[in-house]
Design goal:
The protein contains eleven helices and eight strands. An eight-stranded parallel β-barrel has the order 1-2-3-4-5-6-7-8, surrounded by seven helices. Helix 4 runs parallel beside helix 5 and helix 5 crosses helix 6. It is globular, with a radius of gyration of 20 Å.
Amino acid sequence: MSVHKEIKKITTRTLLDMKQKGEKIAMLTAYDFTMACILDEAGIDVLLVGDSASNVMAGHETTLPITLDQMIYHAQSVVRGVNHALVVVDLPFGSYQGNSKRALESSIKIMKESGAHAVKLEGGSEVSDSIKRITSAGIPVMGHLGLTPQSIYKFGTYTVRAKDEEEAAKLKQDARKLESSGCFAIVLEKIPAALAAEVSKSLTIPTIGIGAGSDVDGQVLVTHDFLGLNKEFSPRFLRRYLQLHELITKAVQEYSKDVKSKDFPNSKEQY
């Protein structure tokens, strides 16, 4: 009789327990089956099917162009590769703003068609009605405060948010509002570390930082950035764990050279 090792699935409850125990949450983005398999097998806690797919997969300048159906396609691909991680899917721009009914419909469509475990949306008190409506349907919601890339044209820049007192006060208020509206976690993007620490301490739900210092409950990076597939993007908060751009370039050049010199395939590499 073969004995299957039971795979412990991460749930929203697991993340809450991790915060209470002081155990950090590791989160990365995923957009396709192969990468999702690798990240999941490596033991990542949370996979975010981010609307950053608009940038890294489709080559758009912002996250705004990606559609709900495109997000679902990426989410389906990721879910098929996952046994352990919690899969969270971004609600794309235009699928929830200013309309809680549409927000619920978009969330239901994502959950039904992709099999993901939760959705994420950007914004503070202005999206609290949508969060209440989505969670009342049994769908877990992750919030996102600080630099919210879908609002890039309002900000006009990707610089650090909430450096002034007024914006910092609003962010703290928004974080409490997101928690009371039913969010199970909040991403804090590109805000001062001291503010992120203060917000994290004030909440019972976990915070996941990206460029928000170390005193948050977890960290998230875009997988293409942390693996060094992107050369151009080098913000202060990014640690590159590999230089895949260089390694892949070298491999492609060697392959091309071997094909042209008739070295590939050799006698052992054919039938």
